[in-house]
Structure formats: C-alpha cells, structure tokens
Specification:
The chain is built from 27 helices and 20 strands. The chain is an alpha+beta fold and 758 residues long. Residues 438-612 form the mRNA capping enzyme adenylation domain.
Length: 758
C-alpha cells in the first residue's frame, strides 16, 4: 500500500533558504520538522515514506537548522526501528502481524535508514559524529552498524566529539553480548584510523571470559558457535597489534604494549614467531621509554618460552650508555636487568660487560637505585665489580716526566704558590686549576665556524703541552714550565728580566742534522709584563709573544731551549699549512684553529678547534690489565665525579708482554716498556683492527691501538672528551673535505674584511 503522507507534509517541509534566516522563519521551519517527525513516530507504518523528505532538509544552509534536523531524525529512527535486523535475502519475517504490510514497511524503513546513514558518513560536521554515536548506542542490532562504527572511530580524531565516541565504543565492547557487534568494532579498528587511546577499550574486553553462558548470547548460539566467534575476535585483535607494529605506528606503541601484555594468550602459536620479529624491530625505533616498554612486553609474552633475548640484551646495553642515557624509566630498567641477568643466565663475559656499564652509569649519572641490582648481578655471576671499575689513586703516579729532562721539578709548596700567583693575575676563581685552555675535537658542524668567523690556523705539534712562566724576583729572572699536572719545572736557561709573563705552547724536539734541539713553540699568550692580556684579540696576544721572542734572541739568552712563535695562517690557508708539515723539524699530527677575536679563557674552549686526520685522532686512557687475561687491558676515562670510569677494552698482543708495544706516532721506532699496567696511555681507534666482542666472543672490526705512554699529565680524558673524539672519528672529517670548503671560507673572510674597511 502506497502511503499518501509525503504529499500531505511536502508543503510544510520547506526549509530556510538563507545562511542566516530571520528568527521567525527559522522557528517556523523547526516547528514544521517537529510536526512531521512526531507524526512519523506516532504512526510509522503510515508515514515512514516521509523520512526521505526530512533527510532532504539536511541540505539547508543554516547550520543550527541542520543540527536540529539530524538530531530529530536520530530520535525518529530510535523510536521506529524494530528489535530485529532486516534480512535482505529472506522473505521470512520475525514477529506477528500482517505479512505484506510488515514486508513493505521493512523495505521503506531500510531505504530511509540507509539514506540517513549515508548522509551521516558524508558529513564532516561534529553533529554527524554525535548522530552516529546515538544511533549505535540504541540500534547496534540493526543494519549498517559497521558503517556507524567506522564513522565513530574517525570521530575519535575530532576533539569536539572524541570523548563521546570513545565512551560509546568502549561501552559496547565491555557490555555487549552480541559478539558479531564486537567483531565489527574490532574489524573496523584494523584500519588504524582512530585516536590511539581507543586501544584502551580492548583492555576492558570481557568477550573471552569463560563464564559467558549460551543464554547470554543474543541469538542463542551453541557453545561451538560462541567459541568460533571468540576465535575470530581474538584473531582480529591480534591483527590490529601486528598492523601497528608492521606499519611502525609509534603513536600507538604506548598502548599496544599494554594490550599485548594482557592479550598474550590470544595470539595463535603460528603467529608468535612473526610477532617476536616485529617486536625486535620495534626495539630499534622510538625513545628510551618506548624501548623499555617494548622489552617488558617481550618478556611477558615470551618469558616462559625458549626465546633468544640477544636483541633485547644488546638494546638494553645501548640504552644505558653513560654518554646518552637520560634518567627515564629507572624502575623498568631495574626490572629488565633483573629479568635478563638474574632470573635468566647470560654468558659470563656478557654479564661482566653489562655490569661494568651499569657501574659507569651509576658514577656518571648518580643512580643509587641501581645499587641493589648491581649487587644481585655481582653475587649471581661471582663478579668482583670493584676490580672492574675501581682503579685506585696510584694508577698513574710515579711516571717519569719528559719535562724533567729540561728542568727540575719544584717542590709541592712552590708549585702551589706559583699556581696561586698565576691564577690570581688571570682573575680565575679556582686558584689551583690548570690555567690553560683545552680545544675541542673538530666535527662537521664546526665548518660553519670557519665560514662565519675569522680564524687563524697553525700546525698541531706532536709534543708536550706546557705553559712557559717567566717572573723576576730581586732583579733575577726565573723560567718555569707548567704541565697539565700542575707541576712546575725550573729551567736552566737565562731569561730577560720581565714581570710575570705566561705563554701557552708545546715543547717539541727538533731534528737538526744529528743534533736534537728542544724547542718551545708559542701559540698564545696570557700574561705579559705583569699584565693580564687574555681579553685582547688573538693577534694582539701573539704580538706580545713576538716581542718577547725578539728580546729573548737579542739578549743572547743561553741554554738548551729554543723559543719561537708558531707560524699562523688565515683559515683559508689550511691546505698550505697541512702540506708544509713534512718540512717541519718536529712531528705534527693535525691543525689548530683559533678564533681571532675570542678572549683566552681557562678550561674547555668550545671555539678552539683541534683537527686531526681521522686515523690519528687519539684519546688518553688510564690502563689496567685484566686479572684473567694478560693481553687484555681495561681503559678508563674520567667521570663527572672525578673518578675513573671504565670505557672500553684494549686488546694487546703477546709481543706487548715482551716489551714491544706500539709505534711512536708514525716513526719506525718501537716504544719499549715492560708493562703498561697502571700507566696513562694515548690510543687511537683502528677501524681495521680485529678484536673480540666480549658479549659473544665473536670477531669484529674496530679496536683501540696503543700509541705511547703519556708522561705529561696525570689524568685521562674526561668521558665527554672521549665521546666527542669518538664522534669525530665516526664523522670522518678528512683534509679533502676541509679543502672543499676553502673557497667559501676565503670568500666570506674577504666579505667581512671589505665590510670593515667601509
């Protein structure tokens, strides 16, 4: 029977044709909609054909009117939808009544409802997401529920309706006994087009509770059917997690690890291997907290299985790198270490290396919360961690100083007095610190410095760093060398009578025929004639040094020491300086770049740059022989707390125990020392050297190579310096790379020079 209702209400269905209609016109249109919708609700069989007319009202320009129409339609369908789903391919009708009328009603109702859902899906306004929520909340049993679910999942990405969408979806997953509906939600979630916290609703699922009865099933399914649907839902949940990991959706990681932990029993055995591989791949991405959470998840899933935790151990070892670790997830870290090294057994060498890194971390980052797990590891593997990390205060004492061959060491009291005088003149706060500056290793980012500022470049001499201090007492001049151990050596040479004067430089040995001449090369000046000149430009400071050398030579100062100022070039002359090194009478292993306008300041100078060819970059380590292997040495650097911190191993050879160790800076002359244990040594990193990976004893390329014993200092490099040098080695800034920037460095220097002349 064809309804006549559409014709009856067509006249009153006119909607406002303006974007902002008059209030009276809008109120009249709303009243008309209300009248029509009320008639549909009161007699749906007669007036269901009017619904498409109401849907057309959604084309109105006024947003308020559209919102009212959409909510009115929601109310209509909530009141007239029957308590069953319309079966499209069956003439069987559930319920009683006149068969023909009920079939026609179903047809018209489904047509109208489908049209409304399509409009909801196309609409991007906030009201459309709310409408989808209201429909699914009351009509989840009816047709097109999957489309409403898809709309609501997208709605979780909209701030205005996110909470409502999540609330309704969560309620359906928690409380619904219709497993088909739950499966529809899970299937739609596989697209990952939703707000990540939506995954929390999976944690609240009770679909897999064994207490569910057949009577709880809406369609009265048998136990076999219920179990089959549970399996489909479980596979769908697993598919969501695998999709997240495979697509590396990091925004979901925080939630997926929690969900996987709860649903670990849902994953089919044939999917476990693939899941493990995806989780291992995830360990290479994300921040520290993400990696820690992922490892906890792996332990929960595979902890009771025969699983290779090698990737986890390696990742955890990298995480606790003292140079990069941030104090994040300490509790998780302790849990993982205990699970991997105490509750499970690892190779002793791997455990020892891990324990040493934990100790480094404790010393550098001050993490007392790790002490308990360190003690557990010590007992579990019978390790003496004190031997592994504590070297002792005498590690580098008693070494013969190279400068002793030039001058006589001053007494401790005289050293302290002289150092106090110098630091007072320099206005240094710490009166007992070494007053010299320290350059930083050259890295790619420093090329920008050479372009933007004026720098002078000179060769880096392979000698002994020292400061030359000259003072006059009772009309008599005295000269001293000061090394980095704050020891003064009184020189026998005669010096001009001059008030407190302090130069920075290096002591080298020049080869002049068959004779050897000790030569002090000045690279900077700090005091001159009792005046602090550190605030002058570098060029002005060097002019004072040149003045001194002329006086020193003119007065015929005698002694075995030659003094001169290093030859400097503008930064764009770096290639010339490098190519002329072979003509020098002493060893040279790099370049020093000094900014012309920067003042001289004690301590690390970020703008003072030290470049070495990558194969010559070196680090000073304190050395301690391992008790259980006479050719294996532990290398220590200086931690932030001024304690020795284990950094790496040095793999020596049997020859070293016989006294032949290394080659002295490229010369064909072996360095002889019966034992380097307890000494301070200079090392370079050899990328081609084969060494053992102590975690699994495999052979790997890349290890430290001994160069020489350092006698001019008493402490190894700080851990920050070591890390910078290692980074510099990895960046591989070659002389060819520097040369490629010379034209641009020169061009910008000339532009600055021209600007100053204007």
């Amino acid at each position: 029977m064809q309804s006549t209702a559409p014709k009856k209400y067509a006249a009153v269905m006119s909607c406002p044709d303006q974007e902002s209609p008059q209030r009276s016109e809008l109120e009249l249109s709303i009243q008309n909609i209300s009248t029509v919708c009320e008639a549909i609700i009161n007699d749906p069989h007669t007036h269901v054909g009017t619904v498409p007319l109401v849907i057309q009202a959604l084309d109105a320009k006024d947003a308020e009117y559209r919102n009212i129409v959409m909510l009115s339609l929601v109310k209509v369908f909530k009141n007239i939808i029957p308590l069953y789903k319309i079966r499209l391919h069956s003439n069987k009708v559930r319920g009683s009544g006149e068969c023909a009328q009920l079939q026609e009603f179903d047809k018209n109702l489904l047509h109208a409802y489908t049209g409304f859902v399509k409009r909801i899906m196309r609409c991007s306004e906030a009201i459309s997401y709310r409408a989808a929520c209201y429909l699914l909340e009351s009509l989840d049993h009816f047709n097109l529920a999957d489309r409403l679910i898809s709309k609501m999942l997208r709605g979780t990405l909209e701030r205005s309706c996110r909470n409502l969408c999540v609330e309704i979806l969560g309620r359906k997953v928690r409380e619904s006994t219709d497993m088909e509906l739950v499966y529809s939600i899970i299937s739609e979630m596989c697209s990952l087009k939703f707000h990540p916290p939506v995954l929390r609703i999976l944690l609240e699922m009770n679909t897999f509770e064994d207490s569910a009865d057949d009577s709880d099933m809406q369609d009265g399914s048998s136990e076999k059917t219920r179990k089959a649907m549970q399996r489909k839902i479980a596979d769908g949940v697993t598919r969501i997690y695998i999709s997240i990991l495979r697509n590396q959706r990091r925004d979901f990681y925080e939630f997926v690890f929690c969900c996987l932990t709860k649903h670990k029993n849902l994953v089919r055995s044939d999917l476990l291997e693939g899941l493990g591989m995806l989780l291992n791949d995830t360990l290479s991405a994300g921040d520290i907290r993400t990696k820690l959470s992922c490892m906890q998840c792996i332990l929960e899933i595979f902890g009771k299985q025969d699983y290779d935790f090698g990737v986890m151990v390696s990742t955890l070892f990298d995480i606790i790198d003292p140079g990069t670790y941030t104090k994040t997830g300490s509790d998780e870290l302790v849990f993982l270490v205990r699970s991997l090294f105490v509750l499970r057994r690892q190779l002793p060498a791997r455990a020892r290396a891990f324990l040493q890194r934990l100790l480094q971390l404790c010393l550098i980052r001050h993490m007392p919360e790790l002490r308990e797990i360190i003690e557990e590891m010590k007992q579990s593997y019978s390790l003496d961690y004190r031997d592994a990390i504590t070297v002792g205060s005498g590690i580098v004492w008693g070494i013969q100083m190279d400068l002793e061959s030039i001058g006589s060491p001053a007494s401790q009291r005289d050293c302290e007095r002289l150092l106090l005088d110098i630091n007072t003149l320099l206005s240094n706060t710490n009166k007992l610190k070494f007053p010299g500056y320290q350059p930083v290793s050259f890295m790619k980012c420093h090329i920008k410095n050479l372009m933007e500022e004026d720098y002078l470049v000179c060769e880096k001499s392979d000698g002994v760093r020292a400061l030359l201090y000259i003072c006059t007492v009772n009309q008599r001049s005295f000269g001293f060398f000061l090394d980095r151990k704050n020891t003064f050596y009184r020189l026998e040479s005669t010096f001009p009578r001059i008030e407190s004067t302090l130069f920075d430089g290096e002591v080298v040995v020049d080869s002049e025929g068959e004779s050897k001449v000790r030569h002090f090369l000045i690279c900077d000046a700090m005091l001159f004639g009792g005046r602090n000149i550190t605030d002058l430009t570098h060029i002005e400071r060097l002019s004072h040094a040149l003045k001194f050398t002329r006086i020193y030579s003119a007065e015929g100062a005698c002694g075995a020491l030659k003094i001169s100022v290093k030859e400097m070039q503008k930064a764009y002359g770096l290639h010339c300086v490098y190519m002329e090194q072979h003509k020098l009478k002493h060893g040279s292993d790099g370049l020093i770049f000094t900014p012309t306008s920067a003042p001289y300041r004690s301590g690390t100078a970020p703008k003072l740059l030290k470049w070495k060819p990558p194969h010559l970059n070196s680090v000073d380590f304190a050395i301690k022989r391992c008790n259980d292997c006479r050719w294996l040495y532990k290398l220590f650097c200086l931690g932030h707390t001024k304690e020795y911190v284990f950094f790496d191993y040095y793999f020596g050879t049997e020859d070293e125990d016989e006294g032949q160790v290394g080659v002295d800076t490229g010369k064909e002359k072996a360095v002889e020392h019966a034992d380097i244990d307890g000494k301070l040594g200079e090392f370079r990193f050899d990328k081609e050297k084969w060494v053992h990976d102590l975690c699994d004893l495999s052979l790997v390329k890349g290890g430290w190579e001994f160069i020489k014993v350092r006698t001019d200092k008493d402490t190894p490099n700080a851990v920050s310096v070591v890390i910078n040098v290692v980074n510099s080695i990895q960046e591989d800034v070659s002389i060819e790379m520097l040369n490629s920037y010379v034209p641009e460095i020169r061009s910008k220097w000339k532009l600055r020079e021209a600007a100053q002349r204007r």
